[in-house]
């Protein structure tokens, strides 16, 4: 792609261009990080940042070795992932059927939504003491807390996608003699590909909340690992743990993306707009990558 083409509205970039831009973006982050830790200001000179706030990038790289050998990094990542997986499965088992009922029967929507909608606006951290009181401070509390954090968002997605199912499709099914169960199954099949696409967002939410959940009476998990390093002011390991969390979350998210592409190949389309310099009378069209 020519450089001038980068400024065309909604013009897609080629895969090599995306890779180069990603590398440039992360390089800028690392360079700015390095400069911020080395920059001196004032007289006498002192660091731009508060002491211990941001460690040297190279020390963080070295700290990865400590996390792997001394803190069992892989086992902690797997433990956190397993907690997220359990909570997510439980959330999906409840949210998908309930969301279909809310999308199919208005009275169910009017009964449940007034309760569910405010929950999405309430900071989940406010419920942490309540979950500790209800479930204690062991594994059940962590799973329940993560379930609560994902359930109401997933429920909203299921309801929205169920409502998007074309009424003509439902009317045709009813005309052909489909009963309520068959219509709900039809709505599930029509909406599930989009619901599955939202699983990546739910997964990201789970990684966000698992850190908080594991700071309470945990013996394994990435949240426990980072909190243990913070308590001894080992910020090299704190930042190394943060980067490890980001990498693990990205890896599992990418696996979900691959699974979605395999299950629903027809969704691998994007709407590509023509450059602004082209004829605006032509409509943008979708085609497979």
List the helices and strands and how they pair.
Blueprint: H1 15-38, E1 40-41, E2 46-47, H2 57-69, H3 73-104, H4 106-121, H5 128-135, H6 139-163, H7 167-175, H8 180-213, H9 222-231, H10 235-263, E3 269-272, E4 285-288
Antiparallel strand pairs: 1-2, 3-4
Helix pairs in contact: 2-10, 3-4, 3-6, 3-8, 3-9, 4-6, 5-6, 6-8, 8-10, 9-10
Overview of this protein structure:
With 289 residues, the protein is mostly helical. The chain folds into 2 domains: 3-52, no CATH class; 57-270, MetI-like fold. It contains 10 helices and 4 strands, in the order αββαααααααααββ. The protein has helices at 15-38, 57-69, 73-104, 106-121, 128-135, 139-163, 167-175, 180-213, 222-231, 235-263; strands at 40-41, 46-47, 269-272, 285-288. A two-stranded antiparallel sheet has the order 1-2. Mean pLDDT is 79; it is low at 270-289.
Number of helices: 10
Rg over CA atoms: 24 Å
CATH architecture of the largest domain: Orthogonal Bundle
Please tell me the total number of domains: 2
Mean pLDDT level:
79
The fraction of residues assigned to DSSP E strands is under 5%
Stretches with pLDDT under 50, minimum 5 residues: 270-289
Distance between the termini: 16 Å
Portion in helices: 55-70%
Tell me the series of helices and strands, N- to C-terminal: HEEHHHHHHHHHEE
Q: Could you name the CATH topology of the largest domain?
A: MetI-like fold
Main sheet characteristics: 2 strands, antiparallel
Q: Let me know the CATH homologous superfamily of the largest domain.
A: MetI-like
Strand order of the largest sheet: 1-2
Silhouette: globular
What is the CATH C level class of the largest domain, in words?
A: Mainly Alpha
């Amino acid at each position: 792609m020519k450089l001038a083409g980068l400024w065309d509205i909604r013009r897609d970039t080629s895969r090599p261009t995306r890779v180069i831009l990603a590398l440039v973006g992360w390089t800028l982050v690392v360079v700015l990080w390095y400069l911020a830790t080395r920059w001196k200001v004032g007289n006498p000179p002192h660091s731009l940042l508060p002491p211990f706030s941001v460690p040297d990038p190279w020390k963080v790289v070295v700290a990865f070795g400590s996390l792997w050998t001394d803190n069992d990094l892989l086992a902690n990542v797997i433990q956190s992932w397993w907690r997220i997986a359990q909570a997510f499965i439980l959330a999906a088992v409840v949210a998908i059927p309930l969301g279909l009922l809310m999308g199919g029967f208005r009275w169910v929507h009017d009964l449940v939504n007034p309760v569910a909608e405010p929950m999405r606006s309430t900071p989940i951290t406010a419920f942490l003491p309540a979950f500790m009181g209800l479930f204690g401070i062991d594994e059940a509390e962590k799973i329940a807390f993560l379930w609560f954090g994902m359930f109401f968002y997933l429920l909203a997605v299921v309801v929205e996608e169920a409502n998007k199912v074309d009424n003509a499709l439902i009317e045709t099914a009813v005309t052909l003699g489909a009963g309520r169960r068959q219509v709900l199954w039809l709505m599930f099949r029509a909406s599930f590909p989009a619901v599955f696409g939202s699983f990546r967002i739910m997964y990201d939410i789970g990684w966000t909340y698992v850190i908080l959940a594991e700071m309470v009476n945990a013996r394994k998990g990435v949240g426990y690992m980072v909190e243990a390093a913070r308590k001894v002011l080992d910020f090299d390991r704190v930042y190394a743990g943060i980067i490890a969390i980001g990498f693990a979350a990205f890896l599992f998210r990418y696996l979900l993306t691959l699974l979605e592409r395999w299950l629903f190949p027809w969704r691998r389309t994007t709407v590509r707009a023509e450059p602004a310099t082209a004829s605006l009378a032509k409509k943008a069209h979708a085609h497979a990558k």
